[in-house]
Design goal:
The complex is a heterodimer.
Chain A: H1 2-11, E1 33-35, H2 45-49, E2 55-60, E3 63-69, H3 78-82, E4 88-90, E5 105-111
Chain B: H1 4-13, E1 17-23, E2 26-31, H2 36-46, E3 51-59, H3 60-63, E4 65-74, E5 79-87, E6 93-95, H4 105-115, E7 118-120, E8 168-173, E9 185-191, E10 195-201, H5 209-213, H6 218-226, H7 233-248, H8 254-282, H9 286-307, E11 316-317, E12 320-321, H10 329-350, H11 354-360, H12 368-374, H13 378-382, H14 390-393, H15 414-437, E13 454-462, E14 465-474, E15 477-484, H16 486-490, H17 493-497, H18 506-513, H19 517-521
Parallel strand pairs in B: 2-5, 6-7
Antiparallel strand pairs in B: 1-2, 3-4, 4-5, 8-9, 9-10, 11-12, 13-14, 14-15
Helix pairs in contact in B: 6-7, 7-8, 8-9, 8-15, 8-18, 9-10, 10-15, 15-18
Classes of the chains: A alpha+beta, B alpha+beta.
Chain lengths: 112, 522
């Protein structure tokens, strides 16, 4: 009994105040991938490389559209690895929960 | 690989061998279909080699036959013997070896469900992977089965083994359990408190992983392998990569080998800490569980700092690793020395608590002959006196370069399994330290775009035990990938471990075996 008390006092409180105090992921964390419209050439390298196939290239109303869904993303970073222009990057953001599936889809477009 | 075992087989069964080929440490022998039972029995009983894997391949397109492969491990010589028999499509029957080698039980039933090849003489020919609502004649791993097929559901019934008699009751548990765990059905027969029979039923979450592997490119398949069993992702990914690297003859850079070893051991440390926490939880010793979980969380956060993923994912690739961890050396060493200090103190403390030790001592015994007969692997086997460890017997990555002990205990109870894990945590931390101190300079990956056609085994010692991959490539893609998670071997042991124990001890026994549903169901 005394041992339990001693160990408990020595260890102290381990829980953090998250989410009142934000918790930052360490550098190099594999989080939410982001697309950069100004660098993307719509070459489709990331589309071929993506293991779960959540990056899609399509044409809509004369625009080239690149869509990425966070629903099926496994945060492997293959897209970042194969992109020749640095137009897709994993970020340190991890709070991705949302109320609708549409919120989990991001896209960039460019006139043909 | 020269080994006296092959000579012994040739001497006894020379007439039955149709073809022989050797690649690296694997000897492939094609055997006449009729003699397979005798030969397997000879290798298993007389030469005393364990049967580690049985699987089938559909090679009707190239060779006009199905093939069944039997993999035996020669631990002493770091070699494997792989027997195979040809089975004609018109007579899809083969002689079951299960009456001689109990460890073949589930493999043969799996082959029956997935390939439609019937093991004649199997003592329990019920379906294993397929449920009763699957129509007859649907064999998903045959090459002519399209992956998009949705078979209609049909009426059917699954017959459980019954124990009957006065005062015998059945307690069905699952497949839906309390808490966030995966599904599995447990049917206990009890007379009073003690369990007199347990039948398990699994494969509720069968995902068709082996079918998904087919035609996949190597790069993508690594990530699928990584997700076969969530908390053993490094072990699976490395086993897969090693199989492919073996086929392509790639010798990965020494620095990559060291990094892989470090990742594999970090995985073992956090898994074992989690299991020890689970055992403390299941005996209602919340304080011990909280402290063990705290240590596990520290290692998970270390994983995140080192690899960017708490479960160490996304690190492995064909030809090496994707990120260097050399700059994190000091951080890892510092954190692990803290963890080791706290862990030693915690284990000493846990083992001094009578309410914990009394509860787990002699509980859930797996006797040595049972463990051997079922081919139990990993810490569960080493707690039952089976001295096997892939890291020592079939060294891969850079395990050859390090000193480590393989803890061995004989009691076979929950206590022994807990102590084996505790000892392994300390050994693992020792291996990581050695690897970090001797981290070689150089590249971390050899890029390879073309993988030749071929086949090979890949293996690792996962936290749960030996994990095997057998990969066959064709046109730079996967033709067949057989995955054998340690849980596929160990699940049946629980039917024996619980006998004569009381129902309330089932959760501890289950936890002490640390079985994966995902890796088993696949």
């Amino acid at each position: 009994m005394l041992d339990i008390l001693k160990k408990t006092l020595k260890t102290g409180s381990q829980t953090t105040k998250y989410p009142q105090i934000p918790d930052f992921a360490p550098a190099g964390f594999r989080g939410k991938p982001e697309l950069f419209a100004d660098r993307c050439t719509y070459c489709g390298e990331c589309v071929t490389a993506c293991p779960p196939g959540v990056i899609c290239l399509s044409e809509k109303n004369g625009d080239k559209v690149l869509t990425l869904s966070y629903c099926g993303c496994i945060f492997c970073g293959r897209c970042e690895e194969v992109c020749p222009y640095g137009a897709i990057k994993l970020t340190e953001e991890y709070e991705l929960a949302s109320k609708t599936k549409d919120d989990l889809i991001t896209s960039i477009r460019r006139k043909l | 690989m020269k080994t006296e075992y092959i000579d012994a087989i040739k001497k006894e069964f020379g007439n039955s061998i149709l073809k022989e080929s050797v690649s690296d440490n694997e000897t492939y022998l094609t055997i006449k279909k009729e003699t397979i039972v005798k030969l397997c029995d000879y290798i298993y009983s007389h030469l005393d080699l364990p049967l580690v894997l049985v699987f089938a391949t559909d090679e009707r397109k190239t060779d006009g036959v199905f093939k069944i492969h039997y993999v035996f491990s020669i631990d002493k010589d770091d070699a494997f013997i792989i027997l195979n028999i040809n089975i004609d499509e018109k007579t899809p029957v083969f002689n079951s070896i299960t009456p001689k080698i109990a460890a073949a039980n589930w493999y043969e039933r799996e082959i029956q469900d997935m390939f439609g090849l019937r093991p004649a003489g199997h003592p329990d020919p019920r379906r294993l992977v397929h449920f009763e609502d699957m129509p007859a004649g649907v064999y998903p791993l045959r090459k002519d089965f399209d992956i998009r097929t949705k078979p209609p559901r049909v009426e059917g019934e699954y017959v459980y083994r019954r124990v009957e008699g006065e005062g015998v009751y059945e307690i069905p548990v699952g497949p839906v359990h309390a808490g966030v765990i995966e599904p599995g059905h447990f049917r206990f027969s009890v007379a009073g408190e003690p369990i007199i029979n347990l039948e398990i039923r699994h494969f509720y979450t069968h995902k068709g992983v082996e079918k998904l592997f087919e035609n996949m490119s190597m790069d993508k398949a690594v990530f699928l392998a990584e997700r076969v069993s969530g908390d053993n992702s490094v072990a699976h990914a490395v086993a897969f990569c090693q199989a492919v690297e073996n086929i392509a003859g790639i010798d990965i850079p020494p620095r990559a080998k060291h990094i892989r070893t470090i990742l594999l051991e970090l995985e073992r440390v956090y898994n074992h800490l989690g299991d020890i926490a689970g055992i403390a939880t299941d005996v209602a010793f919340a304080m011990g569980a909280a402290h063990a979980n705290k240590l596990k969380e520290e290692v998970l956060q270390l994983n995140e700092k080192v690899t960017g993923s708490r479960l160490l994912r996304g690190m492995n690739a064909i030809g090496g690793v994707r990120r260097d961890i050399g700059d994190k050396k000091e951080g890892i060493l510092l954190e692990l020395s803290d963890v080791q200090h706290d862990f030693r103190e915690l284990i000493e403390y846990l083992m001094s608590i009578p309410s914990l030790v009394d509860r787990i001592e002699t509980t859930g015994r797996i006797y040595n002959d049972t463990a051997k007969g079922l081919h139990v692997v990993g810490p569960a086997a080493r707690a039952s006196g089976i001295d096997r460890d892939m890291r020592r017997d079939h060294p891969y990555a850079s395990y050859r370069d390090f000193n480590f002990k393989v803890p061995l205990h004989k009691a076979g109870d929950v206590l022994a399994r807990t102590v084996v894990r505790a000892d392994e945590v300390c050994e693992s931390i020792g291996i990581i330290e050695q690897a970090l101190w001797s981290l070689p300079e150089g590249d971390i990956r050899i890029k390879s775009s073309q993988i030749p056609d071929g086949f090979s085994l890949g293996y690792t010692e996962a936290p749960r035990g030996e994990t095997l991959y057998w990969v066959m490539t064709e046109n730079n893609r996967i033709k067949r990938c057989k995955v054998r998670d340690p849980s596929f071997c160990n699940w049946l042991a629980i039917e024996y471990a619980v006998l004569d124990n009381i129902v309330p001890d089932f959760p501890i026994i289950n936890k002490s075996l640390s079985l994966s549903y995902s890796g088993n169901d696949m």
